[in-house]
Design a protein that fits this description.
The protein has a single domain, classed as Alpha/Beta hydrolase fold, catalytic domain (Rossmann fold, 3-Layer(aba) Sandwich). 44% of the residues lie in helices and 19% in strands. Strands 1, 2, 3, 4, 5, 6, 7, 8 and 9 form a 9-stranded mixed β-sheet that branches. Helix 1 links the parallel strand 3 and strand 4. Helix 1 crosses helix 10, helix 4 runs antiparallel to helix 5 and helix 4 packs antiparallel against helix 6. The radius of gyration is 17 Å and the shape is globular. The relative contact order is 0.15.
Length: 271
């Protein structure tokens, strides 16, 4: 399958994005996950969708002028809107995973009309939880641990607090398999410049309910032990909806891309 790679100059960043397939426009968005993590899902969907994936600002091929700039959901949402502009697209459907789901929530609120259906899969919106203060402290401790003891120690705390079993390959901060040098660079950026802003973001419930976008919250059928399951249920309750169930856990789209794509198609179609 042919994949076209594009670059878009934005204030302070050069964004890298990929386009494959044909049909209705669908964006697959992660944070900190780069476009590469979505390739199996994108290829499963490209038979009947034009699928766009991208490297979020500061991650992989999307290079910042200032590498110390923090990544916020608002900045990432503006980047996605700019990609739509570059493609000449008024609107698109969007599947966002983890921090990418938070990006999608920010996009719907900041750029009304640009998203037709948002599927926000397990956004780590810990500010919505009854134990938000404890979660906030845990995130601060992960970041302090990263600066003091390095990526491995911080990632261990991240995994434990999130609810992943030791050795789980579907954690949002790390790809499956042995990490590459770029994975380590991206992981360091995640803790130093992205994690706090993403988890501190509070979704604008009024804007999400006002439309015109249809907002669907997604959860993995195997995610019951995860913090992101609780955040997803809390957000769905605030929106007055029931979460849609997807195969696998937090990273189910990587482990079961074909099955995940089928469920996503049904959700986008209103099922």
């Amino acid at each position: 399958m042919t994949t076209a790679t594009h670059f878009l100059e934005r204030p302070g960043v050069r964004l890298r994005y990929e386009v494959r397939g044909s049909g209705p426009l669908l964006l697959l968005v992660g944070a900190p996950m780069a476009a590469a993590h979505f390739v199996p899902l994108a290829e499963a969907l490209a038979a009947d969708h034009t699928v766009v994936t991208h490297d979020p600002r500061g991650i992989s091929g999307s290079v910042l002028d200032d590498p110390t700039q923090d990544s916020t959901p608002e900045l990432r949402a503006d980047d996605v809107a700019a990609i739509l502009d570059a493609m000449g697209a008024e609107s698109a459907d969007l599947f966002g995973s983890s921090g990418g789901a938070v990006t999608g929530l920010a996009l719907v609120a900041r750029h009304p009309g640009r998203v037709r259906t948002l599927v926000a899969h397990e956004p780590p919106s810990v500010e919505l939880l009854p134990d938000a203060a404890e979660q906030r402290a845990a995130v601060d401790d992960m970041i302090e641990t990263f600066h003091r003891a390095g990526l491995e120690a911080a990632f261990a705390k991240f995994m434990g607090n999130a609810g992943f079993d030791e050795g789980d390959e579907d954690a949002p901060a790390g790809p499956p398999g042995e990490p590459s040098e770029q994975d380590l660079i991206d992981g360091a950026r995640f803790f130093a410049h992205e994690l706090r802003g993403t988890t501190r973001f509070v979704p604008d419930i009024a804007a999400l309910k006002a439309g015109p976008a249809r907002v669907v919250i997604g959860v993995g059928v195997e995610s019951g032990q995860l913090v992101t399951y609780r955040t997803s249920v809390a957000l769905a309750e605030l929106l007055g909806t029931v979460p849609a169930e997807f195969p696998g856990d937090h990273g189910g789209f990587m482990g079961q891309p074909e099955e995940f794509a089928e469920v996503l198609r049904k959700v986008l179609a209103g099922g």
